[in-house]
Design brief:
2 copies of one chain form a homodimer. By secondary structure, chain A is an alpha/beta fold. Among the domains of chain A are: 2-95, Beta-grasp domain (Ubiquitin-like (UB roll)), CATH 3.10.20; 117-186, Ubiquitin-like (UB roll); 351-385 and 503-598, 2-Layer Sandwich (Nucleotidyltransferase, domain 5), CATH 3.30.420; 388-492, no CATH class. Helix content of chain A is 31%, strand content 25%. Chain A has 18 helices and 27 strands. In chain A, the strands form 6 sheets. Chain A has a 6-stranded mixed β-sheet with strand order 12-11-10-13-15-14, sandwiched between helices. The first copy, chain A, is globular. Chains A and B meet through helix 4, helix 5 and strand 14 of A and helix 4, helix 5 and strand 14 of B.
Amino acid sequence: MTVHVDFEPVGRRGQCPTGSTLLNCARELGVDLVNLCGGGGTCGRCVVQIMEGEVSTPTSSEGKFLSSEQLAAGYRLACQTVPLGNCKVRVPPESLTTPQRTQVEGEELPVAVEPPVQTYLVTLDPPSLDDLRADAGRLLEALAQQYGVMVSILDLAVLRELPLRLRGEGWQVRVAVRDEEVVALLPSAVRPLGLAVDLGTTKIAAYLVDLETGRTLAVKGVMNPQIAYGEDVIARLAFAGESPAQAARLQELVVETLNQTAIEMCAEARVAPAHIVEAVVVGNTAMHHLFVGLPVDQLAKAPYVPAVASALDVKARDLGLHFAPGATVHLLPNIAGYVGADHVAMLLATGVTQAEGLVLAIDIGTNTEVCLVNHGTLTSLSCASGPAFEGAHIKHGMRAANGAIERLRLVDDRVEYQTIGGAPPVGLCGSGILDTLAQLYQAGIVDSRGRMGEHPRVRDVQGVREFVLVAEDEWGDGRPAITFTQKDVRELQLAKGAMRTGINVLLEVNGVTSDEINQVIIAGAFGTYIDVASAVAIGMLPRLPLDRFRQVGNAAGMGAKLALISKTKRREAQAIASRVRYIELATAPQFATTFAQAMYLG
Amino acid sequence: MTVHVDFEPVGRRGQCPTGSTLLNCARELGVDLVNLCGGGGTCGRCVVQIMEGEVSTPTSSEGKFLSSEQLAAGYRLACQTVPLGNCKVRVPPESLTTPQRTQVEGEELPVAVEPPVQTYLVTLDPPSLDDLRADAGRLLEALAQQYGVMVSILDLAVLRELPLRLRGEGWQVRVAVRDEEVVALLPSAVRPLGLAVDLGTTKIAAYLVDLETGRTLAVKGVMNPQIAYGEDVIARLAFAGESPAQAARLQELVVETLNQTAIEMCAEARVAPAHIVEAVVVGNTAMHHLFVGLPVDQLAKAPYVPAVASALDVKARDLGLHFAPGATVHLLPNIAGYVGADHVAMLLATGVTQAEGLVLAIDIGTNTEVCLVNHGTLTSLSCASGPAFEGAHIKHGMRAANGAIERLRLVDDRVEYQTIGGAPPVGLCGSGILDTLAQLYQAGIVDSRGRMGEHPRVRDVQGVREFVLVAEDEWGDGRPAITFTQKDVRELQLAKGAMRTGINVLLEVNGVTSDEINQVIIAGAFGTYIDVASAVAIGMLPRLPLDRFRQVGNAAGMGAKLALISKTKRREAQAIASRVRYIELATAPQFATTFAQAMYLG
């Protein structure tokens, strides 16, 4: 039994199983609703408006997040609402996860091209009654004779296509060799391709590379489609942990997206996905495990250990990727359950591990990984900064989509702001949230303990103070107000406190102080867009001269690319992973006192 | 649209697509009809009798094989006949491929057990906040510490089950290591299993082995299910060559049978297929290629080259086998397009390659492979002896099923015979055919040129002489006569001529004569059952004292088992394959004259 559900204005409609929540219907139909809690009714983000049709009665969860006026107007949480028949549903822009600004560019280190896969143009004598050698032996002997390359193994998929390829290409093929194995047969005029991927919790950045020259042929940023099943790592691990089928679904979603992204990038560069012979994928440990199809239960429970930490080589086909039949996916090493290969890639790309003096490298995200490089020794940890900077748990927070306020200044009592795409304001994205708190703090409206004081723009709503950024009547189009609440301040104090605690514990463990830091490297999409001065103002980052900060963009993606084109960089990544001293922040003795301290603003 | 087809007396019935031939209907319903030509209407073996229902009118092919009386009685060729509605079809026993006597036992060489997979019982410390090592690293470090075994790779499937296995087994597991890779995790009390398989064109022999002791736990012989798609290699390659889907179907059929056989043998031995960590499979080059999923076009056309000749290691899961998730299938090397890994296995098992003097080793089948060991040098060739000895192209020939005459003597003018299962006679299987020709020749009824002379039991049917072995009225049950025709003699002359030509060319190439042969080793199912004296009498085998012949049974299967339990034997197999000098018989200069000579009987 099914019901017909119509999601507008996105225009997706179709039959969905009777009894499914609207969130599941949306997933079925490919509508990416925001949801941070994985459908548990606890984040209140998947707001939709019922336009036509009967649905189930509101749950107590919905009562918490929606006013009686909103419920009367048909506003509901998609995860709590089940259609009782055909219905039409409006999805407000802030409930849609896309479009999302994605950061793919980053600073690139120059590196000698030394790819793990080499190709050789080999010409063979066709078999005859006087020369009955098998195709495989014939190929390997020609490779040895013509290039002195001794290889003994052909990948099974290569072997399966060998007879047709040799005959189809007139006994001349470009043989791709990796270690001691033939991993692909390419047409003679084709150059081997590589793909570097930064597999983020929220977004995926991919780089298509000419493996011979190291040149980037195409770059693409797309959303991680797993978002529909929980926006942060915890929600996603919980979803995957419910059943192997759900874990497999998450794996397939990413693989489908990578396949599609490869097709699009190859089309742009006028090359073929079948000529991708090597890929490097980095991500946090959870993304890594979900992508490889490794169990995540032990990752989701204390003491949070990975199934595997060392670098992995996996056949692309074993993951479902449609590259060259024998292509390999190399996964850089993880360090711990919450410090993954993306951290290693970031350290690799920024070159900080060879830095002199004291350097702090921070990759800000839902989890923020921090590494302190202290005259050559590396100490890393992860702090659960939470998704507040991605707009979660913030009353008018949202992700970096159109209409999000990304910059904000208080000028006297006026609020000046800039939105993404110049659209009318919908809410606050991470950099806007950071600016708001910094401005309120600097104007004395919020004190160092985080208490919001009196101000003409501060009002009280049901006992909670809030600062009005955009008033109800400001746009004259019935648009609701955008405010910043006392509760929002507390959320941000937790987030910035976690981040600063991480930094401080690293400094303490190393017996150094923040003013000794020579450089702070800030990586990641959020880190790229923030106003560093705001971050310093609220005390999220140490108070240092601004010229000591360097915002490097997607360093993890750049690290993946380096490891793709350079065997030396790949070895270096393994060396970095084993050099890093990992600290479990929650169990560090300094944690409690430091965290209490770090909650203060300024 | 479908029609209902009922095959009796086997009792298989069901719906089949309208327009399908009865042969295809039989395949659909799992009724294994004999057919040598793959459904082309040229072998005349798939005779059935229409009992009820309308079918298509007879084709010209059917006119060639069936008399008008037979057609009138409803006899038809299944491959030429299409049901026009529901029908009931009788399958005569001689048209059924099963039951078939299968030969699985063979002489076994004693060998030191030295398997390629070793297991180690490893006990791990569980992770804690003070010991956050990943599961994989924890396992490998314990293996190194407790056994000094340095391994760096875990098979992907093993990695995927590692976290649950470690926790489920209380941090104690039996780790199976192959080369430098962990290929399986077994419960601590479990012994690793191996499977040796002789994958014949007609039958499959499988041996379940305790890999630690080398002891055989179960043995099973089953029919190769590909038979439904052509009984000889040529028909099967033709079927596979028609489309990748058909090739894949043949591959799946064998894999399904191996999976099922493994389940049955494991049940018998009270062990589990999931504990099979290694398999060795041997077969002729065509069976090898079809099993591995390699293209066969180049194998079916001159100059008949294999895709690969050297030994192969393939993950069992990549072939669809349900063994331990990381189990390996090792395929012994092929020598040429028509001398495959089964020949290598036979040479390995019989130990002839180390024999002194002059030894001839023959594996008799549809293709007969012969090796002459001449004071340590090995020369091999394949002769297309054809399926005559399996009953094909012989008027009353049949496979070795119930009712087949397997032994026959002329005593004065009486015919004395013995049938398989003691059942009333249905036809002649290979050993019976051989006996018949030998008896007719020795009685002077057939001369050395193969001409059938006068005799009270010789009659003329439509211009063709035939010797009546069993008369029409002999059993008083309307059973048709069983005869041996002039044409049958010619078929056998071709078969024995091909075999003897192979032997003679080997002798000539080596500059030796047949009386110098110290020993003749006869391997294979047919070779086990034949009366060597008959084979010598007609000149199929050289005239030597009978004590120089040794019938060794399924030597290929024994060779597979040796390679399964001994790395030394595996290396020896590779060495044998490279030592063999291969001769393409059809292009040997002696071929034409030798063949003309070898056609003579006696």
